[in-house]
Amino acid sequence: MPVVQHWTVLLPELALVGGAIFLLLIDAAKPSQRGPHLAFITLVAVVTSGVLAFFQWSHPTTSALGGMVVGDKFGVFARFIILGAGFLATLTAPAYLHRRGLDRAEFYALLLLSTAGMTLLAVSSDLVMVFITIELLSLALYVMAGFERGRLESQEASMKYFLLGAFASAFLLYGIAFVFGGTGTTNLLRIRAETSLGGVADFRLVGLAVALLAVGLGFKAAMVPFHMWTPDAYQGAPTPVTAFMAGGTKAAAFAALLRVLVLSVPELRWDWQGPLAALTVLTVVFASIIAVSQTDVKRMLAYSSISHAGFVAIAVVAASRSGIAAALVYLLVYTAMTIGAFGCVMLFRDGDGERVHLAKYSGLGVRRPAAAALFAFFLFSLAGIPPTGGFWAKWYVFFAAIRSHHAWLAIVAVGASVIAAFFYVRVAVVMFMQEPPEGDEMELDSSVGLKIALALCLLVVVAVGVAPGFFLHLAEKALPFGG
Amino acid sequence: MALPTIAFWILAAFTAVSTLFTVLTRNVVHSALGLAASLIGAAALFILFGAQFVGLAQILIYVGAVVILFMFGIMLTGTAVRPVVDNDQRPAAALVALAVFLVLAAGIVSSFGTKKVRFQVAFPTVQLGHQLFTTWVLPFEAVSILLLAALVGAIVLARRD
């Protein structure tokens, strides 16, 4: 039976789902016991998954389980980014949840299920799998965004994300139906064969389908104009969930977008490159301009993450080997620096809550210089100031765009990053150049998990900043199956 | 008349009558039961025409889950105590129903016309089951994980504490 071969490709996902079921079972057995051991089990599941994925790096690429998934280096690289986001979010979660009385096993189980959905999406090579895994990751995230049921903003975040997410899923499904109508298959490699010379595809249907698929995936990646949910969802969701959403979902959505656009319909490149380039310009420019007027730091970081989606999309438009590698490096650095920035927001306590308003940051650099410097470092990296990892990520993306004759796109994006630099640097100015208010001791969160998470984020951003070539080299090896 | 044709007319009449009962009764509990009967009739028609899987799925999902959900809704909202509900939108509803009927009837007549319907299995369920557990086994399993996530999520959001 050839279809059950290579099921070992899915071992990392089995570790995640197994961890989730184990968490639910021990919670059912001892419901009164809550605490850090739940987070510890989650971390063990994520690390196991990562180790199992690591062993696939040296395997030859395979198509497995009836062509539903592929085992390739691209999948391993994308999984590492996603698992990293899950790992960091789990480290930051216990202290945050404990303070609000929310440290339940279900949170970690949903986090693991969502991570499994993301990693499975990154290796899916059939549109049916793409749809199911997107639903899996989203469904868990809808609930996690509304996990703080007592807080109205959290409910709002969950509700908006859910309603618009369901709408986007309909677009995706509609697109998949058109692909099937136009090519007679939902398998990405077979779609490629049917749309190539000698194939039987109906190009009007496939063109329409690609547009609908891009809308559905663009929603998950939070590209303008499908970004409407992002600021509210990121602002209202519990901050560990926001960090996880910002890092993991984006990496998974772009892995799927790369597979669908660059891998399965390269022959339609001339049709989708133009519209996607337009969306990209819209995303980077619009998000950067709106972010300038934000005074809520979580909301500002949400717009920042939208604009970063635009930068990754530039690498997708490039539709080349160097584009794919640049997108992977970008997603790696972006995940580390954005989770680092949200982690810093969790670090700065204001009584029982967090400092979310920009005015509350004044003088933070005077009272807590080390923590403020760390936040400033992540912000500078998000802005793309050398020699941080964020600079090299942007550099490779622009380089890929120029090499595939989209120099104008790179020029527009550089302009947008100058605008974006303004609001990143402004936070640093508020922290270091303003006097702290009297009587505000500006205590920091003392949780060990959060500190380890921030140290790991710092490590990745510095490592890419110091040795960008090493990571680019790895990403260049990580070509998708059939690419 | 051949036996399947007789069966068809009996089932069609049963379905039509129970559907009419569903919309004409003023008692919501009766209405929900009428809907269940109408859906069972439709499922029987599917099976008669050889679409076994669709027929069984219809019973499993619509009768087994959707109508039961209606029943729960009626119970939980307290409508079961005062079950008689009605409003003045009957003419508008009749108009919409007529329009839907005309569109569907026109579609069916124009695509099938005078073609003879054959009472035989077009796509055996065993083949479908085989496909489901070979080529499509991974999506099948992934959907079950998705349902697990939905279940856990629903409990998290709904429970009182």
From the structure above, extract its key features.
heterodimer, A: 483 residues, mainly alpha, two-stranded antiparallel ribbon, two-stranded antiparallel sheet, 19 helices, 74% helix, B: 161 residues, Four Helix Bundle (Hemerythrin (Met), subunit A), 2 domains, 75% helix, flat
Provide a descriptive summary of the structure in words.
The complex is a heterodimer of chains A (483) and B (161). Chain A is mainly α and 483 residues long. Chain A has one domain. Helices cover 74% and strands 2% of the residues of chain A. In chain A, the strands form two sheets. Chain A has a two-stranded antiparallel ribbon with strand order 1-2. Chain A has a two-stranded antiparallel sheet with strand order 3-4. In chain A, helix 2 packs antiparallel against helix 3, helix 5 runs antiparallel to helix 10 and helix 13 runs antiparallel to helix 15. Chain A is globular. Chain A starts with 10 loop residues before the first helix and ends in a 6-residue tail after the last helix. Chain B is an all-alpha fold and 161 residues long. Chain B folds into two domains: 84 residues, NADH-ubiquinone/plastoquinone oxidoreductase chain 6, subunit NuoJ (Four Helix Bundle (Hemerythrin (Met), subunit A)); 39 residues. Chain B contains six helices and no strands. Chain B is flat and about 60 Å long. The chains are: A mainly alpha (483), B mainly alpha (161).
End-to-end Cα distance of chain A, whole Å, is 27 Å
Please estimate the helix content of chain A: over 70%
Strand order of the largest sheet of chain A: 1-2
Largest sheet of chain B: none
Q: What are the secondary-structure elements of chain B, in order, as H or E? A: HHHHHH
Mean pLDDT of chain B: 88
| Largest interface, C-beta within 8 A | A-B, 38 and 18 residues
State the secondary-structure class of chain A. Answer: mainly alpha
Question: Structural class given helices, strands, pairing of chain B?
Answer: mainly alpha
What's the CATH class of the largest domain in chain B, please? Mainly Alpha
Q: What is the CATH architecture annotation of the largest domain in chain B?
A: Up-down Bundle
- Mean pLDDT across the residues of chain A is 91
Rg of chain A over CA atoms, rounded to whole Å, is: 21 Å
